[in-house]
Amino acid sequence: MPRKNEKLGVLTVGMGAVTTTLMGGVHAVRNGWGKPIGALTQMKPFSELPLGLAELDDLVFAGWDIFPDNAYEAAQKAAVLDETLLKKMKPSLVSHKPMNGVYDPAYLPSLKGTHIKREKSKWALLQAVRNDIRTFLRKNKLSRAVLVLSHSVESYRPQNRALSTFDGFMRALKKNHPGIPPSMIYSAAAFLECVPVINATPNNWGGMDLLSDMSAMSNIPFVGCDLKTGQTFLKSVIAPALRKRCLGVSGWFSTNILGNRDGFVLDDPQAFRSKERSKKAVLNDIFNPKEMPDLYGQFHHKVEINYYPPRGDNKEGWDNIDLFGWLGYPMQIKVNFLCRDSILAAPLVLDLVLLMDWAHRNGRSGPQDWLGFYFKSPVGSSTGKSSHDLSDQYARLEKLLTSSAGKLL
Ligand SMILES: NC(=O)c1ccc[n+]([C@@H]2O[C@H](COP(=O)([O-])OP(=O)(O)OC[C@H]3O[C@@H](n4cnc5c(N)ncnc54)[C@H](O)[C@@H]3O)[C@@H](O)[C@H]2O)c1
After folding, report:
1. pLDDT at position 3, please?
2. pTM of the entire predicted model
3. Which residue's C-alpha comes closest to atom 3 of ligand 1?
4. Of 4, 86, 236, 325, which residue is most buried, by most CB within 10 angstroms?
5. Ligand 1 mutation pick, 20, 112, 150, 305, max ligand atoms within 8 A of CB
């Protein structure tokens, strides 16, 4: 257990809408300007468990970005928190200036990074990120941190076998392998510095073999991928209900309008491909045509995200579900969710930071499949260790935390 005065470092890759809403939100809650709604760790029943989670006052933030805006400027551009609240927290946010990011235009063609590391090889970039982590810990007198991948969606590339082991990955870094995106460099640096990793994005941070290899060497926990915030959150509630009721589904059409920088990046078809894969994972798993061919044999799933600047971070999602019942008679469900993307995402990141730090301090390492509740594409789902049903995921989270708290009493 950390001592009361021990702080926890929170290193974010990307200081955009999600990150600045988290940083600003934590500051607001500390000062009593708002409540931490949506964060399970801050609300009953979990807030009452004697787990010894880090306190909000203990969090020390730092991060990387490929643009030089400080957290106040970035939050203003993200336009999630209102100006009056932002002004109150300006003195705290302006002091957060990002470290230079690892930028590879091949993975992010829609943004031209200016605040970037100039190292010549991917190997040198890994060393530079490791050095950033060490310097941050030393300067802030910290003994521990967690790293959150919360940067823009990278272009999709299929998994490469040459990168499936730690040794192969190290060799590939030295040869500047084109299959290594910035996400992999940041996560490898964290593993090598014994810092737990949370992947809040759909980005490829290494295949499960490589991640397991790296985490086994350093005894570090990792978890991902892609936060389950709006439309996919509702899918993981509605789809299991239809499945349990033995109703057939012939199609599910999902579309969104979104006007923030995430939406701009996702307008690029290769970036959208990364997102589409994780957005589709929930329904593809629940409506399994092999298990229930009469109900899901013809299932058609279509997902769209449209960049529409007037909406900013206030995403609107529409779902049309074509279902059928007794004797095949058709029905429809329509869902229209007017949400706020980063307002839903920030509390999830806060929970993950506190729970992953707790897991690390309690000797947990490898993929943390009990945290599947938080993700569109949870680690462990491909091996059947993690369900996509939100109520199953919640039950698993609750069981682990309550039983651990019982042992700690
Ligand atoms: N907002 C949500 O509800 C939500 C939900 C699920 C997942 N996500 C994912 O979280 C991520 C962040 O979302 P956001 O809304 O904050 O996006 P954003 O565009 O506001 O912020 C991303 C930031 O990352 C920076 N960045 C890009 N590449 C980088 C790199 N290589 N190194 C360092 N910084 C880099 C960008 O400059 C930007 O400031 C995205 O991948 C998004 O898909 C968001």
Report:
1. 57
2. 0.95
3. 341
4. 236
5. 150
